[in-house]
Amino acid sequence: MLTKYTSLELYFLEKYKLLIKNTFLFKSLGVGFLIVFFLSLEHRAGTDTTLRRQHSDPNRVEAVMNRVEKLYRTQPGQALRMLESLGPRNRLGMNQRGTWHLLKSKCYQRQNKYQLSIEEALMAETSLLKSNDSSGLMGCYSIKGNAYFHLLALDASAECYRKAVRLAIALDRKDAEADLTLNLGNIYAQQKDWNQAGAYYRDALLYYKNSKDPMVSYVLNNLGVVEEMNGRYHEAKKYYTQAWRLDTQLLDSMAMASDLINLGEVCNKLQQCQESLQCLRQALSISKALDNGGYVSRILMLQAEGHLRCGGGRDSAMHYARQVVRCVEQNLSEDTLNLRKAHALLASQLTALGQANEAVPHYKAWRLLDSIVQAREAQEKLLEIQASYDSEHLQRKSERLEFEKILLQTRSERLHATNLALAGAMLLSLAVGVVLYYRQKALRYRDQQAD
User: Fold this and answer.
1) Structural domain boundaries of the chain?
2) Cβ count near 201 (within 10 Å)
3) Quick one: which H or E segment has residue 22?
């Protein structure tokens, strides 16, 4: 029999059945555990959407992407539609998501939509960095470099190509390293930094020669341009001659015409008049067969300048200059620079002959074309500045989006921790309250029994 002298330990030992029979405590504890469980599920659903929404058939996704890789060069529009058919990008795995954006970037590049191409490449870069896909990142930087180059953002283009070169070296991809190095040379040539351009061209030439790649003639031609711009005409002639011999073996008519034009021009600068005119005649014959009006007008202008410089006669020079004007008038060429040179030559020679009235229209055309060329150069400079600004803006936008994503994830994790803490505190408070309630009830019951 329990009395008031009975210890609390013994009292609770005898009265534990009362707690078990009353199910309110256990129901409350069960509800608390359910709250914690559902909060955990909510956090998992909110933060791990990739697992929850992943595409039902990853093999199909892989097959579609492989088809797009083969198709985008010739049919970029259809390739884009195939990529969109895979559904929202958040249904793809992290590795596939980066490839998905990269393929979209390639499609936009083939459509000359360089701004969209850069935006997709930036999103691809974010995903590929997370999955440590070095090969994909190299392709991503290469695409960005090409897009920035076409947008005249040359510094941004060079930076992307340098990143791609570092990855190509790390992956031991000699072919990619050579192509990317060649692109860097083209960028510095565009900026008229001939020493840097020549250094990159020589590095690319070393690989192409070892692998017997057809690109050797192209690089030799570019090295000839570098030497010519630096005033080393004899070295330039050697490179042009080597390029011409290789292109002759490859039967590449367009490249042969380009080589002969370069040879004719550099021979003219070396006062090798007969050799210059012979090269230009061969180039003119090939260009007419190819129906290439741009090459034809350039060759005719070089022939006009050659006849003046080498004493071939004023009449011959004016004859070729008039042919340049006629090419443009007949819409066979849109070469504004050579048209300006032709009008300048005709104006000066007619003035020297005392035919001022005939020279006036050529002077007017020359000044007008000069203004157009200057305006175009100014516009290109503005486009280059705008492109540089846009490239920095896109990069900062990408960084801001990534930061916002990290911030949202951190807030989600903090909210989850707060919810769990509140649920735990509520559960603990409930448990303590129930224990205190039953303790007080037990004490009152003992006092009643003792009385």
Assistant:
1) 203-288, 291-388
2) 28
3) none
Matching residue, tokens 């559902």: 38
Helix spans in 153-272 (H):
154-170, 174-190, 194-210, 215-229, 233-250, 253-269
CA distance 359 to 91: 71
User: Which own/partner contact pairs does 128-132 have at CB distance under 8 Å and 24+ positions apart?
Assistant: 128/98, 128/102, 130/94, 130/98, 131/94, 131/95, 131/98
What phi, psi does 72 have (nearest 5°)? Answer: -65, -25
Residues 6+ positions from 344 with CB-CB distance below 8 Å: 362, 366
Q: What is the CATH number of domain 203-288?
A: 1.25.40.10
**pTM as predicted:** 0.65
First-to-last C-alpha distance (Å) of the chain = 13
Q: Cβ contacts of residue 88 below 8 Å, gap of 6+?
A: none
In this predicted model, what pLDDT tens digit does every residue of 83-131 receive, in sequence order? 888 866 656 776 788 888 888 888 998 888 888 888 888 888 888 888 8
Give the residue carrying structure tokens 């341009």: 225
Task: Say if residues 269 and 232 touch (Cβ distance below 8 Å).
Answer: no
Per DSSP, 359 falls in state: H
3-state secondary structure 60-129: HHHHHHHHHHHHCCCCHHHHHHHHHCCCCHHHCCHHHHHHHHHHHHHHHHHCCCHHHHHHHHHHHHHHHH
Distance of CA 397 to the CA centre of its chain: 15
Structure tokens at 357: 């009235």
d(CA 296, CA 437): 104
The size of the chain, in residues, is 451
User: What is the C-alpha to C-alpha distance for residues 298 and 300, in angstroms, rounded to an integer?
Assistant: 6
Give me the chain's average pLDDT, please: 79
Mean pLDDT of 198-204: 92
| Residue 163 structure tokens | 């990143």
Q: Which two tokens stand for residue 443?
A: 């004490």
